[in-house]
Amino acid sequence: MSAYNFAFLDEQTKRMIRRAILKAVAIPGYQVPFGSREMPLSYGWGTGGVQVTASVIGPDDVLKVIDQGADDTTNAVSIRRFFVKTTGVRTTTRTDQATLIQTRHRIPETPLAEGQIVVFQVPIPEPLRWLEPRETETRKMHALEEYGVMHVRLYEDITRHGHVETAYDYPVLVNGRYIMRPSPIPKFDNPKLDRNPALLLFGAGREKRIYAVPPFTSVRSLDFEDHPFTIERWDQTCALCGAADVFMDEIVVDDKGGRMFVCSDTDFCERRRGR
Amino acid sequence: MSGDGHDAALLVEGLHKTFTLHTQGGIQLPVLRGVDLAVYPGECVALTDPSGSGKSTLLRAVYANYRPQRGRIVVSHDGRPVDMVVAAPRELLAVRRRTIGYVSQFLRVIPRVPTLEVVIDPLRAFGVDRDTALTRGRALLARLRIPERLWSLSPVTFSGGEQQRVNLARGFVGDFPILLLDEPTASLDVASRAIVVELIHDALARRVAIVGAFHDAEVREAVATRTVSLHGTEAAA
Amino acid sequence: MDGDVPLLRARGVTRYYGSRVGCRDVGLDLWPGEVLGVVGESGSGKTTLLGCLSGRLEPSAGTVEFRQRDGRVVDVLRMPEPALRKLARTDWGIVHQNPRDGLRLGVTAGANVGERLMALGARHYGQIRSAAVDWLGRVEIDRERVDDWPETFSSGMQQRLQIARTLVTEPRLVFMDEPTGGLDVSVQARLLDLLRRLVTDLGLSAIIVTHDLAVTRLLAHRLLVMRGGEVVESGLTDQVLDDPQHPYTQLLVSSVLQP
After folding, report:
1. How distant is the Cα of A26 from the closest Cα of chain C, in angstroms?
2. B16, B20, B67, best to mutate vs chain C, most C CBs in 10 Å
C-alpha cells in the first residue's frame, strides 16, 4: 500500500508552485503560469486553490475551508477532508483561529490578521478575456499597461444599465500596476482586498495561473469619477444574529415565498450568537 | 520691353515644353521652344498666339501644373526667388497658396461645398480671419452678379457662366502678387466681361503682375498693358 | 514652413516576400498638413509600402523616421514595440479599407470612439460620452446612435465611425488604405468630402493608398505612382494627372473614365 506524500503533491511540484507563488508575490496582480497538476477533483471545482494550499500548508497550520462563506457546504467539506487525510493538520471553522483559509466566492467578515494566508479559487484569471481571446495579445496588453479596454467594459455597463452591472469578480487595479480579477467574490468584498494584513493567493487550475496580493498592498476597484465604485446594501439585518453591513444570503423558507436574510459567513454569524 | 528682368515679378527664360505620348506610339509634340518672358508688377501681359499654340501650356507651366523639359521660371516668394521648374513639391504648394493665383477656363467643382466657401478658401492661406474672409467673398460674388440665394449652394448645378464667375471670384479674392488668367471671359456675357475688366484694372492698380490669354479682342484691348507672342506670330493689332 | 525636418521620412524602403518584390527602394518626405497619395494597381506594392511605413510590416531594408510632437525624431523600424504601439494609438491614425478591421464590433459606437480616450486615462464617463457624441456629429453620424452597435450601421457609417475612432486623439499622421473601397459611389463622395474637410480643419498629414485616381484628385496634394514595387513617377497631384511623364502613368491616367 502506498501512502500519499504530505499534502498529496510531490515535493518537486510543491517547489515549482512555491516558486510561482514567490514570483506572484513579487509582482502583485501579475498572472504567473504554472504547471498545473491533475488533482482528485474536476476542473472548475477548485483544483487551483487546492494546489496552492497543498504547496504552502505545513504540519503546524490550522486550516479553514469555506464555500460561499459557509464551512458546511459539500465542497468545503470535501476539500477539508482531503487535506486532513493527506496532512493530518488541525482544522477549524473559526476565522480568527485559522492560519490558512481556502475560500470560494467570499472573504470572511471577520477581519484578517498578519500571518494569515487566504487562498482563492479562480475560474478565469484573465480580466481582458471578455474582449480579447488571444493569450498572446492579452499578455502584451498587461505588459504595456494597455488597459483602456477595461474601462470600455465599465462604460458599456453604464450605457446599458445606467450603472456598472458587474456584481462579482469585479476588476481591480493592484499596486497601481496590474489589473486583476479577484475571483467571483461579490463586489461587496472588494474593499477587504485593499491593504489587507493577510497574504492573498489566487489559484486557477484549469487556466494554470497563480497570482497574489501581498499584505498591505493597494487594491482599487475600477470606476469612473462620476460613477464611483459602490457596494451592495441590504435594508434587512441578519435574521439570526442581527448583523447589519454584512453580505447576506436570501433563503426561501416555505412554499408560499417566505424568505429570510442571513449572514453568508456562517462562522461570523455563529460567533455573534455566542456559539 | 521695360526693365531688364531684375525687378520682374515673373521671369521665364528659355522655356521648352514637349509632350511625349507614350500611349500613341511615342509621338512628340513640341509646344514651347525656348520662350522668354518677363512680367513686372502692375503689368498685364496678353498672349496673342492663335489657339493651340501654347498659351495655356505656358500658363500651366508657370503654375507648375505642366513640367517643362528645360528653362527657368522664377518668381519672388516670401522675398526669395523660386524656380518653379526645379522647386520641391512642398515649395510649389506654398507658392500656389500665396504667390501665384490661377484662373483656369473651368471650375473644378467639389460637390456639397457651398459657393461662398469655395470663394473664400484661398484666404485661409493668407491668414485672413473668417469674418473678414466672408465679407470679402460676399462683396466679390455680389460684384460678379451671382445672386445671393446661390451663395449657400454648391456650384455643381450652376450654368457655365455662373461657374466661371465663381472661379473668377476665387481667383481675385486673394492677395496674389501674380495672377495667371486663362480665357477668363469665356462663356460670359457682355456685362460680366466688363466687370472682369474692372477687376483686372483694380488688381493692376494694386501692382499685381498679370499674364493672360484673352480670346476676346475687346477685353484684351481694355486690359493689356503689353501684348506678347510666344512664337513671334503677331496678332492683329 | 515647419522647419527643416519632415514629419515622416522614408529612405530605401524595400520589402521582399521570398524572392518576390513587395516594394523596392522607396523614399519619400511628408510634411505637416500634406496628403500624399500612393496609387497603383493591385500588386503594385502600395499596400506593402503602407505597411512598412506604419511599422506593421518589417521591411527587408530601409529607414523610416517620424518626428514626434516633442520634436524628437524616432526610428520607426527600430522603436521598441511598446513605444510603437503607443504611437499607433495616439499620434498616428489608421483607416482600414474594411471598417470592421478598425472597429470593435462588440461594443457601442460611443465606446468605440471613447476607447482611445480611456486608454489615455480619461476617467469621467460623462465627458467621454460627450466627446464621443461630438465626434459622431463631426463625421455626420446621427448622434442618437451613440449607444448603438456598429453592426447596425451601414458600411458608409461604419467607415465614418472608424474615422471618428481614430481621429479622436487628433493624430498628426493618418494612414489610409483604400478608405472608400467597397462603398457605393454616392457614399464614397460623401466620405471623401468628409475626409477633405477633416484634413483641412485638423491640419492632418495623411498617406492614402488607393487605386482610384479620382480620390487622389480630391484629397492628395502629392502623388507617388507605383508599379511592380517601384515608384515610377512622383510630383504634385495635378502634375502627375495632367502632365504624366512615365508611360505607365500615362496609361493609368488615360484608362480612367472621366465623369
Report:
1. 23
2. B67
Q: Do C236 and B21 touch (CB under 8 A)?
A: no
Instruction: For chain B, list the contacting chains (3+ Cβ pairs, <8 Å).
Output: C
Chain C contact set for B21 (CB, 8 A): 250
**Can you read off the three cell numbers belonging to residue C168?**
479622436
Interchain contact, C147 vs A131, CB within 8 Å: no
The DSSP code sequence of chain C is ---SS-SEEEEEEEEEETTEEEEEEEEEEE-TT-EEEEE--TTSSHHHHHHHHTTSS--SEEEEEEE-TTS-EEEGGGS-HHHHHHHHHHTEEEE-SSGGGGS-TTS-HHHHHHHHHHHTT---HHHHHHHHHHHHHHTT--GGGGGS-GGGS-HHHHHHHHHHHHHTT--SEEEEESTTTTS-HHHHHHHHHHHHHHHHHHT-EEEEEES-HHHHHHH-SEEEEEETTEEEEEEEHHHHHHS--SHHHHHHHHHSPP-
- Do both C143 and C130 map to the same domain? yes
Residue C24 lies in a domain: no
pTM (2 d.p.)? 0.86
Domain membership of residue C153 (yes or no) is yes
Residues of chain C with C-beta less than 8 angstroms from the C-beta of A151: 118, 122-123
CA distances from C151 to A132, B164, B181, C105, C155 (A): 18, 45, 51, 6, 9
Whether C155 and C176 share a structural domain? no
Query: Would you call A176 a catalytic residue per the annotation?
Result: no
* Residue among B135, B165, B130 at smallest CA distance from B150: B165
Q: What is the pLDDT of residues C69-126, one digit of tens each?
A: 999 999 999 999 889 988 998 899 999 999 999 999 989 999 999 999 999 999 999 9
**C2: contact with A, CB 8 A cutoff:** no
- Taking only the tens place, the pLDDT of each residue in B38-88 is 999 999 999 998 888 899 999 999 999 999 999 999 999 998 999 999 999
Residues 6+ apart with CB under 8 A from B157: none
Residues of A in contact with C84 (CB under 8 A): none
C202 shares its domain with C243: yes
Contacts of C189 in chain B (CB under 8 A): 111-112
Whether residue C255 sits in one domain with residue C156: no
Residue C22 falls within a domain, yes or no?
Answer: no
Nearest-Å Rg of the Cα atoms of chain C is 18
- Which one of A48, A115, A241, A258 is the catalytic residue? A241
Pair (C176, C255) in one structural domain: yes
Which chains border A (3 or more CB–CB pairs < 8 Å)?
C
**Geometric angle at alpha carbon A216, from A213 and A220, rounded to 5°:** 65
pLDDT value, residue C3: 61
Residue C125 resides in a domain: yes
Q: How many domains does chain C have?
A: 2
- CATH code for the domain in which residue C219 is found: 3.40.50.300
Domain that holds residue C185: 32-91+171-259
Do B and C count as touching (3 or more CB pairs closer than 8 A)? yes
How many other C-beta atoms can be found within 10 angstroms of the C-beta atom of residue A114?
A: 10
**Is A241 a residue of the active site?**
yes
Q: What is the pLDDT of residue B164?
A: 93
The distance of B86 to chain C (nearest Cα, Å) reads 11
Q: Do B65 and C247 touch (CB under 8 A)?
A: no
Domain shared by C205 and C195, yes or no: yes
Chain C contact for B52 (CB, 8 A cutoff): no
Kind and range of the H or E run holding B100: strand B100-103
pLDDT score at B237: 31
